[in-house]
Amino acid sequence: MKFLKTSFRFFKSLYLHERFFYVLFGVALLFLISFWVPMIYPYLWLVVFVFALLVFSEIIALYKKDRFSAQRNLPEKFSNSDANPVRLFFENQYPFKIHLEVIDELPVQFQKRDFFHQQEIPQKTNATFEYSLRPVERGEYFFGKVNCYVSTRLKLVKRRFQFADRQMVKVFPSFVQMKKYDFLSIDNRISQQGLKKIRRIGHTMEFEQIKDYVVGDDVRTLNWKATAKHGNLMVNQFQDEKAQPVYSLIDTGRVMKMPFEGLKLLDYAINSSLAFSNIALKKNDKVGMLAFSNKIDQFLSANGKKSHLNQILNALYKIDTRFLDSDFGLLHAQVKRQISQRSLLLLYTNFEHISSLQRQLPYLRAVAKKHMLVVIFFENTELKKLAENKSESIPEIYEQTIASQFSYDKKMMVNELQKHGIQTILTEPKNLTINTINKYLEIKKRGMF
User: Which residues are CB-contacts of 263 (< 8 A; sequence separation ≥ 6)?
Assistant: First the structure.
């Protein structure tokens, strides 16, 4: 029984190289020619004998001992929509140079079945090979085996080795993009946009100092104890709170299922939300998030701790789109119930037609009465390209007219929201993160909330 198992493993791992069939075809062709040239016939059997000897010698050299190993090194987690490195390590302990062919079994989400790599590794040497993968969906990705086919310089047969079976890595929202935009948290960066650094004197409960009264100061802030002590009118001076609450409101309804460049609008919003939260924490604000569709999927109260970013990352990882219409009335009720302090709310959603905005406008206006609301929605880049193309036929003119109408509707939505005092960002999906962060920095610098 043991012999049968060993034989089965041997034949299962033994493969014939392309060169083997080329030589075999050449020998068969010579045997055919020997019908017309009989004098070469005896020598052909010598060629067959030498060929068989070389094949068996290569098999013995490859199977004498297990002298090859490989290992797949995966990062702890993948970053969604970014290039993530995967490293393969090879160790050749054979006393001769080997030719290596590698087929790595990639996760099914990539739908890539043509992975192939080959290289030569000198004797008693280690080697590495690195490639990158770009996932476009969050979740668990399972790698299969690393199939390595080893042959000698003869390249007549090859032996298959299999390593690293069933490895799993989780794909999280784009933490690479988050680190990329870290520099935007530097205070002097905003001056590049022509915004003045304004020190605003506020009337919140964060005390700054006691100072002499001057004409124009609010008499309600008079400090009578300090006035009696100094003999002059003294007032309390307050400053705007540094740690202000900022929330990312993410629509997970069917409108966010639309893909652009392989990535869903929801994933663009999630990546942007993570990068934005990181900037807000570095600016000493408190960040939170809320995901909703026909129900509340996730809610995290605003918190200013640096460790809170990990909670946001894990919450964003679990979010997925639903094939249902989002309930903005439910969003308004949740915000009214859970967010009592005036906050900056960044709402990631999408409207393709002005009528869909008008249905939700009463709820948006109700939210904007108490909070600083920024509605973020997307330009349809495909329709934009279609509208800019040159038309050469009546059907193309018709399509271009419809595309132009949709683009015009987007601009009308911006005007409608701004008319009711609601800040807006209309952006292409690929520019979402940078535009959102810039809007936040602008609002914060101007002290608008």
Answer: 80, 81, 136, 429
